[in-house]
């Protein structure tokens, strides 16, 4: 829906060569984060766009912060790249999911600090691969467009100093920022488990056999094992490792919580056999293995370790435990010293030297159970690691790579600061503008919020429904740079104006708290679209897009925030996604995600998109070409197919309670003249429906 009333006014003024001139043009800029994209920043004269009279749209006003769409991702990393999680653990980027909490960075004054952020989108693509090798042995596989943070700022993996591909890029001797090379966490084998129990029980447990005289008998024995911890993770791991060694224990509450102290839980046993087995397990081995050393360090750290003032310490009053701990550190190449601070309790510490670099290697290697001591939250980004670029090698291959979008715009990858990746947009076959300019020339109304506030304050404004996302996606990639939508939401809610948001961008997650707050002031509608549930077909048609599971996760996130969410199942592809089993699987998954309603829309093939899709169909599914020629004499599918599809989906929509549309009507597939909006996608109280808590997944297609 590209209405004439929404076109920007044009006049002769300062546009780039070959580009139409734009009224109110402030500047045209190209920034490193968006290679190949030009932003035309304009001072718009209006924010509210009137929908032409006679339009079938159920609203009269719309807001479009952008003209054009930047949903094209150019950044990516190899699947094995380790991303730092909020609890200090690492996970390969291929295994990340939307909603995962990871570590990013933010500027505080003149320095950059590690902070906790969230994965907003995750998907895969295929890119030409490059290997970046650093002096400390770190290796990163990335696309040439990917950027890493250096002492001189963000730099691409590849580039030139002149010509079209001119951009800041990595060269030999550039220094990347981060903590550097670390290790992947090994599996917890039998030796590791025994080492952990030894370190934990010897450092913090009570294990004893008490002998005493009883009247009429020579003596009696009382066998005791007890371990009490305020951190349940360490207690659960010890309990589990003992059970896997054949030792059963009983859990109980040791000390209830108070205003100043957390609750303490404990495990115990008084069985003579169990106590004897634990005693044997925690004997110091004559020849400890490397895995035993790892487990022992994890147990001692969970029992009495700490990280404060950026120092990692393992404390105890027992000299043998301290010596054994220092020896275990040395066995893995850690520089650890015993410090006696002269405390009256006799407690000394084994302090790890080497700064954050060695602390992270320690945590990843030994994998303690108690994670609150492992976060990097608030720590400044400084390191003495050897992060000098040694080489950037073209592997000469196009390989699968993975992208994420984060709340901070960056994340930690293999120990270095990596630039944020943005969600790819829908291709032409999903009814976006077919021209290259729509992807690469983006007009931004930088004063949108200011103008909108003035328009909403006019006495003539009647607080009618305003729609966001009718022309271009408000949560497209550029929104991560300009952050216009939060101001729009606040202005609409503050003026008492109901509004709706239609998006395919998982950046919507960023604004959910704000939208939930706005819904307490005015009616709010939210719409998300998804097209394909099958992963293989999705990979063929949308190789760089967030996958279907991620799109369903976005729906779940919206409804979990207490907001309505209508879903556009669009487009349905004849012969590919219109089988009864495919439609039922998609609608079942949408229902599980908590959607309040669904509208099913068959594929449209407008000029431009038609040529792209026809070429793909001829290559991948030539047997379907004759059928598509019959169904598509113009841009829209034949009426008989629409009726057939409507009859097929109507019972499914009813079965899953998804047939309710805005205004209360129940339809299957709308015709071109009547666009049915699913319940929840327009302002107004959606009908209540039961939520199934079964997990499901993500994102959208603009109609």
Structure in words:
Helix 11 links the parallel strand 26 (499-503) and strand 27 (524-530). The protein contains 17 helices and 29 strands. By secondary structure, it is of the alpha+beta class. The longest helix is centred in the last third of the chain and has 17 residues, at 639-655. The chain folds into four domains: 4-67 and 429-655, pyruvate-formate lyase- activating enzyme, CATH 3.80.30; 82-181 and 385-419, Endonuclease - Pi-scei, Chain A, domain 1 (Beta Complex), CATH 2.170.16; 190-281, Roll (Endonuclease I-creI), CATH 3.10.28; 290-366, Endonuclease I-creI. The strands form eight sheets. The protein has a seven-stranded mixed β-sheet with strand order 3-4-25-26-27-28-29.
Annotated CATH topology of the largest domain: pyruvate-formate lyase- activating enzyme
Largest sheet, described in full?
A: 7 strands, mixed
Q: Helix count?
A: 17
CATH architecture of the largest domain: Alpha-Beta Horseshoe
Task: Give the overall form.
Answer: globular
**Category from helices, strands and their pairing:** alpha+beta
Low-confidence stretches: 1-21, 422-439, 664-675, 685-703
Just give the CATH class of the largest domain.
Answer: Alpha Beta
Indicate how many domains the architecture comprises.
Answer: 4
The tally of beta strands, per DSSP, is: 29
Binned strand content: 25-35%
User: What is the arithmetic mean of pLDDT?
Assistant: 83
Radius of gyration: 30 Å
Properties at a glance:
Endonuclease I-creI, pyruvate-formate lyase- activating enzyme, 29 strands, single chain, 703 residues, globular, 4 domains, alpha+beta, 7-stranded mixed sheet, 4-stranded mixed sheet, 17 helices, disordered C terminus, Endonuclease - Pi-scei, Chain A, domain 1
């Amino acid at each position: 829906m590209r209405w004439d009333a929404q076109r920007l006014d044009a006049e002769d003024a300062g546009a780039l060569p070959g580009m139409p001139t734009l009224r109110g043009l402030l500047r045209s800029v190209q920034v490193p984060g968006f290679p190949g994209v030009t932003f035309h920043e304009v001072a718009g004269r209006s924010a509210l766009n009137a929908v032409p009279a006679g339009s079938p749209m159920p609203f009269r006003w719309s807001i479009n912060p952008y003209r054009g769409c930047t949903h094209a991702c150019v950044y990516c990393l190899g699947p094995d790249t380790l991303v730092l999680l909020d609890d200090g653990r690492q996970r390969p980027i291929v295994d990340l999911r939307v909603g995962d909490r990871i570590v990013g960075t933010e500027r505080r004054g003149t320095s950059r600090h590690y902070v906790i952020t969230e994965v907003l989108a995750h998907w895969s693509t295929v890119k030409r691969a490059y290997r970046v090798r650093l002096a400390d042995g770190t290796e990163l596989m990335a696309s040439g467009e990917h950027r890493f943070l250096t002492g001189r700022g963000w730099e691409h993996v590849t580039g030139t100093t002149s010509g079209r591909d001119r951009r800041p890029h990595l060269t030999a001797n550039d220094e990347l920022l981060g903590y550097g090379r670390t290790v992947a966490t090994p599996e917890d084998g039998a030796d590791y488990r025994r080492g952990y129990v030894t370190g934990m029980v010897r450092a913090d447990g009570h294990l004893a056999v008490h002998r005493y005289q009883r009247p009429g008998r020579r003596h009696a024995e009382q066998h005791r094992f007890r371990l009490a911890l305020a951190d349940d993770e360490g207690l659960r791991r010890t309990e589990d490792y003992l059970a896997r060694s054949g030792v059963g224990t009983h859990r109980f509450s040791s000390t209830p919580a108070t205003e100043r102290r957390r609750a303490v839980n404990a495990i115990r046993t008084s069985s003579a056999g169990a106590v004897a087995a634990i005693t044997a397990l925690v004997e110091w081995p004559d020849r400890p293995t490397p895995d035993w050393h790892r487990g022992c360090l994890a147990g001692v750290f969970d029992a009495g370790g700490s990280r404060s003032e950026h120092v990692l310490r393992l404390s105890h009053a027992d000299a043998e435990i301290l010596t054994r701990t220092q020896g275990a550190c040395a066995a893995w190449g850690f520089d650890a010293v015993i410090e006696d601070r002269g405390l009256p309790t006799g407690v000394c510490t084994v302090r790890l030297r080497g700064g954050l670099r060695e602390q992270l290697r320690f945590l990843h290697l030994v994998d303690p159970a108690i994670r609150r001591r492992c976060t990097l939250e608030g720590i400044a980004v400084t390191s003495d690691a050897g992060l000098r670029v040694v080489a950037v090698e073209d592997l000469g291959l196009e390989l699968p790579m993975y992208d994420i979008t984060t709340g901070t715009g960056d994340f930690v990858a293999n120990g270095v600061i990596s630039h944020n990746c943005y969600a790819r947009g829908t291709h032409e076959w999903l009814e976006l503008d077919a021209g290259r300019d729509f992807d690469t020339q983006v007009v931004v109304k930088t004063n949108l919020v200011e103008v909108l506030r003035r328009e909403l304050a006019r006495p003539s404004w009647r607080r009618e429904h305003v729609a966001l996302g009718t022309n271009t996606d408000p949560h497209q990639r550029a929104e991560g740079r300009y952050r216009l939508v939060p101001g729009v939401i606040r202005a609409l809610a503050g003026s008492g104006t109901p509004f709706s948001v239609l998006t395919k961008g998982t950046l919507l997650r960023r604004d959910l708290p704000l939208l939930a707050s706005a819904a307490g002031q005015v009616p709010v509608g939210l719409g998300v679209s998804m097209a394909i549930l099958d992963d293989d077909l999705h990979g063929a048609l949308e190789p760089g897009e967030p996958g279907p599971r991620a799109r369903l996760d976005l729906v779940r996130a919206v409804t979990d925030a207490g907001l309505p969410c209508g879903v556009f199942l669009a487009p349905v592809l004849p012969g590919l996604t219109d089988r009864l089993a495919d439609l039922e699987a998609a609608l079942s998954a949408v229902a599980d995600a908590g959607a309040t309603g669904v509208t099913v829309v068959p594929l449209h093939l407008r000029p431009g998109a038609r040529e792209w899709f026809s070429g793909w169909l001829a290559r991948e599914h030539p047997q379907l070409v004759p059928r598509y020629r019959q169904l598509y004499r113009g841009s829209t599918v034949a009426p008989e197919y629409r009726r057939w599809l409507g009859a097929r989906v109507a019972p499914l929509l009813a079965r899953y309670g998804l047939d309710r549309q805005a205004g209360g009507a129940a339809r299957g597939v709308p015709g071109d003249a009547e666009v049915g909006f699913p319940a929840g996608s327009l302002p107004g109280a959606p009908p209540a429906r039961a939520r199934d808590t079964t997990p499901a997944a993500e994102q959208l297609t603009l109609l």
